[in-house]
Amino acid sequence: MHSTDNTLFKPGRRDFIRKSGLATLGLVIGIDSTARAFNITRLTESVTPFEVSPFILIDVHNNITIVNPRNDMGQGTIHSVPAMIAEELEVTLDQVTIIQSDGKAKYGPQTSGGSSSIRTLWLPLRKAGAATKEMLINAAARRWDVPAQACYASGGKVFKKDSDVSLTYGQLAEEASRLEVPREPALKQRTDFRIIGKDLKRKEIPARVTGKAVYGIDVEVPGMVYAAILHSPMIFGKVVTIDDSDTLKIPGVLRVIRSERKMIHCDTDSVAVIASNWWAASKGKNALKVQWDHAGLAEKLHTDTYFEQCHAQVKTEGINHHETGDFKRKFDSATSRLDVTYETPFLAHVPLEPENTTAHVRQDGSVEIWAPIQGPGETLPDVARYLNIAPEKIKIHPVLMGGSYGRKAYIDFVKEACFLSSKLNVPVKVLWTREDDITQGPYRPGMLSHMQGFIEDGKITGFHHHIIGESILRQVFKGLADNEADPWMGEALGEGNNKYRFKADKVSWTNVKTEIPIMWWRAVNASNLGWGQECFMDELAHLAGKDPLTARLELLEDERYIKVLKTLAEKSDYYTPSRQGTGKGIAIFRSFGTICACCITVSVRDKAITIDKAVSVVDCGIYVSGDTVKAQTEGNIVMGLSAAIKGGIVFKNGICQQSNYHNYHIMRMPEMPAVSVYVMENDEAPGGVGEPGLPPVAPALGNAIFAATGIRIRKLPLDLTMP
Amino acid sequence: MAKYTVNVNRRRYEVEAEPDVPLLWILRDYLGLKGTKFGCGIAACGACTIHLNGNPVRSCQLRISAIPKNSEITTIEGVGATVLHPVQQAWIELQVPQCGYCQSGQIMSAVALLEKTPDPTDKDIDSALAGNLCRCGTYDRIRKAIHLAAGELKN
Fold first, then answer.
1. A238 forms bridges with which residues in the sheet?
2. Assembly ipTM
3. Taking each helix axis from N to C terminus, what angle separates B122-129 and B103-116, rounded to the nearest 10 degrees?
4. CATH domain A303-347+443-709 topology
5. Chain B residues with CB inside 8 Å of A215's CB?
6. CATH assignment of the domain containing B108
7. What CATH code is assigned to A7-209?
8. pTM for the whole structure
9. Which pLDDT tens digits describe chain B residue by residue (155 residues)?
10. N or C: lower Cβ tally within 10 Å for chain B?
C-alpha cells in the first residue's frame, strides 16, 4: 500500500500519525490567500492535524506541522520553503512535520515554477512564522504576568529571561490562538539566521537513496486498474476505427475504451487499454490496430518547414519590443558590423519518471487524485472545471515528482486518469511510456535569433536581437495579437535582464506559427535566447579586437554583473593563457531574478572536442540553502550541455523522429566535465535558483569552441566531432 | 500463466505470471518493491538496475521465465536493509539526489562496481555508470560519492 497522506517527513521517535481525525484545539496561523495579498490572518475553521490549515499548525500535544505549498521536483523546495517558516518560528526542522499542500484555495498559488518559490514566499512565509512566534511569546508573557520583552522563543519553547522557566509551543497554543494576530511582526536580521543560509542536509534524502521515497508512479490504491494509452502518431489525429481483437486476448486486459487528451489549447483522441497490471495494459496497447485520420498533419508538423519559414523572416523588420538610439539607421551606415543568425532546436523534457496519475472519480461525485505535479493549486480548479464537479469534492495528493523541468506543470496526463476513472468508476492509474513522453510533446520551441551589431572606435555600440519563432503565449494561451511583440520573449532580453549599455539597442519579434505543441521547458525563453545573445557578444568582441570578458566589462555599469564576471575570471583562471588546442569561453545571463555566468574549457583531441571543465558563478541574492543553489546550478550545467550537444526533437511529415533515450540523447557520465559552482554573498533580495544556471551554458560552450578552434558555431545542437 | 519462484533480497517469493513479464514489473506490481524504477523500457536509462547474482542487470529486459533457477536478486530495498551501505551513506553525505528517481539504479550500479573494483578510477566510474541517466544532472556528485564510499569501504 503506497497510498499516502500528504506527509513528507515527520520527526523521529514520535508517532505522529493518528488517524482519528478528532478536532484539536490549537494555534493556526495562515495567510489569507483569498485576498491574494498574503495578509496574515487567523483562520476560523476547525482543524485537525490531518485537515490542516495554511502553513503552520501547532496542537496542544506540541505537534508542530508546516505545510509546504511548493511541490518538490528535485529542486529542494521540500526543505527550503519550510525552512523560511521554521527560521522565524524558532523551531528546528527536526521538530516539525512537513506536509505538502493539497491544492486547496486557502494555500494560495501553489505552482513550483518560474524559479519563484523562494522569491515569492520569502516575506509572506517568514511573516507567518514571525507572527506565530510573537503570539506564543505574548501568551507566555500573560501566563507569567511579565512583559513580552521579558520572554524569548527558542527551539519550540518560550523562555522567561534570566530563569529556567519555559513552556512548549504546545502548552501555549490554545491560549495564543485567542490573541490578536500581529499585522507587521518583526522579522529576524540576516545575522541572526540559524537555518537560512546554511548548508543543511535535506531530510528526505535518506528516503531517496533507499527506494522508500514515494513518487507518482509508486502510488497504489485498493481496487485500482492500470491504463496504457495509445496516442495518435501525429498527435492530433482522429480515431477512425479500432480493432482491439488481439488486445482483448491478452491475459490481464480488461477492456479497451476511447479516451481523450486535454491539452491546454486543444483536445486529442486516444485509445486506452485497461488491465489488471500495467505490463498487460502496455502489451495490449501495442496489439491495438487503430486507423487514424491524419489529414493535413504531415505538412503542419514538420520542423524543417518551420525553420525555413523562420529563416525567411530574417529579411523582415519584425515588431519592436523595445529600441533605443535609432539602431537601424546607425546599423545601415556602420562600417564595422555583423549580421548573422543563431538557431536552437525543439527539445523534450524527458524527466526520468514518465507522466503518470492515479485518479478515482467516485459515483457519489467525489474525486481523489494522486499525481506528481508542479501545481496542485492550479490543477484542482482545472480538474473541477473539466469534470464539472465542485472543487470541494476534489482531494489532491501531490506526490513527489521524479523530475519535471516544466513538464509536470502541464496536466494533460492528470485529466486522462480523471477521464478514464469517470468512465469506469474505479481508481485508474495512467502511466505513459517513454515513447508517449517524447513523441507527444509539448516541447521547448525551436527558435531563430537574427543578430545584428556594430562597433565604433573599438567598442561594441550597437546590438539588435531579432527573435523569430513560435510563442507559448500565442500558441498555448491565445494571448498574442499578430501586431504585438511577444512580451514574455521581450522581457527575457529587457531592461531587467540585459544590463549591457549600448548606444543603440533593439529587441524585435517576428512570429512564425507552428502546430508542433510547445510549452515551458527549464529556463523557458531564456534557454533559447541566451545562445544567440551571448555568442554574438563574443563575435562582436572579437570584431572589436577585444578579449570577450573584458569587452563585456566595458559595457557594464551594474555592480552585481561586474562582480559576477570578475569572480568568474578569478575562479576559472580565465586570464591565464590557454594551451594550444584548448580554449575557454564565457557567457553571462540574467533570468528569474538571478545572474549566472559560466566559463567552459574545451580541448581538441583526436579530431573531437572534449568539454573539460565548467565553472559557474551565481548571484541569487540572499539564499536559503547554499548547497541547493550549487546543486541546481550543477544540474543546469548538465541540462544546458545536453541541450547544446545532443540532438533536438525533429518532426518529419507529422511524426516525431525521436522516441526514447536511444535516439533522444541526454548527457551521460563519461561526457561529464569537472564542475564547480560559486555563490555570491550579498544582502540583495532573493532571486530564482532552479533555472538561471542554464541560459549561459550553451553560449559559453560555443565561445569556448571558437577560442580553441576558430570555428564559430551558430546552430544547436552542435557536433563535437571536428569536420 | 505459470508459477515462478524468485529469490529477492534473501526472501523467497512464489509468483504466478505470464512468462514474458519483465522482472521490473514483477518487482513493482507483483511484489510491491517499488524502489526499482521504470524509465524507458529499452535498457537505455538504467533506472531499473538490479543485481542478478551480484551483476548489475536492467530488470526491464529480464523476463521472469528467463531468470536462471536459484538466482539471487538484489534490489535497492535489499541494499543496506539493516545498516545503510557506505554507498548510500556517501550519497547522503554529499547530498547527491535531486529528484532522486534515477538514484536507485545509480546506487545499484555503484555498489556492483565497488564490489569488483574497490578503488575505481574516474574512467572505471564512467564505464560502470555510463548506462545510468540522470536528467537532474547529479553526475559530478555521483562520481565524488563513489570515491568517498570507496574510501570508507577500505577502512
1. A293
2. 0.98
3. 130
4. Aldehyde Oxidoreductase; domain 4 (3.30.365)
5. 37, 101
6. 1.10.150.120
7. 3.30.365.10
8. 0.94
9. 899 999 999 999 999 999 999 999 999 999 999 999 999 999 999 999 999 999 999 999 999 999 999 999 999 999 988 999 999 999 999 999 999 999 999 999 999 999 999 999 999 999 999 999 999 999 999 999 999 999 999 98
10. C
